Amino acid sequence: MQETQHSTIYASTKSDLSSCETYSPFTHRPPPWYMQGEGWWMVLSLLRPSRKLLKHVKHLLDEESSSSGPAPSDSFRPHKGFRGGIGNVQIIRYDTSPVGPYDELLIIPSAFKPPSESIDQSPGLRITQLYVSTLESVLNGRRNWNTPKKLARFEFTEVVGCSNKIKLEVYALRSFGFTPFASSTGWYFEPNFYETPFFNVIMDRHLPSVNIPVKLKQLPMLDLPLLQPPLQAADPLDPQSPEINCGMIGTSEWKRTRFDLKGSCGLCSFTGNLSGRKGQFSDGDHFPDIQPYRLGIHFPRVYLKVPAPTLLSTPEPGPQINKKSFKIRKTIHSYMPSFPIKRFD
């Protein structure tokens, strides 16, 4: 594959990341984040995702785990703690965010349970693959919420002769480099993307607009927090420049985030348009080979608030009750005869 280049200039600024004690070209944007944009939702499942989808997601995460070294736990395997529910793919074009405009493609296969050692066992939604169009979003998303963001190039174009149809092509990152200014006050970031997209879809908004007001809090099946496992450390952006790698370090805590979404929505349809693969949306290598419902949701305007996450709590170290032994003792006690107690004065 050939490569295309898109250079970006970053100036040197003081980083707010606690783990980085030096100067960084990136600025930490802590939560809450308030964002606005246009969105599309592709519905994958209503109760349980297909075995094929889970197999694809598991395969991709296992590959990522092995490429980054041994995973610290089963948290990185999506089949662990699976609960079911509504699965979806989201495409959002943010024109307002703390890190400026950017595009986003993500998949939430379903809801999952937290690790068994967590005190709060309520399930949450999990993002397993997530691509964005700017490096600032990658670094801040990983740091703030454990979201596994990766950089990609997004191309939105109107289909010729049909203004209601939009084609989206997403290109994976192949390689990148950082070139310091001669004055040493900033860097050129030079990403190289594959020329063939790994995700290609045509979104048709020709259907009658319904414009139904939607608030996530009014939809019990979707009003679940985001529950993200710890992130493994990603490959350093530049081995020779530690100050550039602040956002790529791993995390060690589970994070639960109760986000809020609202806006008006209507219906739209989706058609897979991957070259050489009739009707297919994605290549199965960079993104799962999905088979969504024909009809989905279009948000002409969506408003999203993402607050600071909470860390999952675990029991304090100390004597633990043997639940099995306790149950046996309780059963034996229930069969013991009850004798009257005679009092001696």
From TrEMBL:
InterPro entries in UniProt? ADC_dom_sf (IPR023375)
The name this protein carries in UniProt is Uncharacterized protein
**What is the species listed in this Swiss-Prot or TrEMBL entry?**
Puccinia coronata f. sp. avenae
**Cross-referenced Gene3D superfamilies:** Acetoacetate decarboxylase-like
Domain of life of the organism encoding this protein: Eukaryota
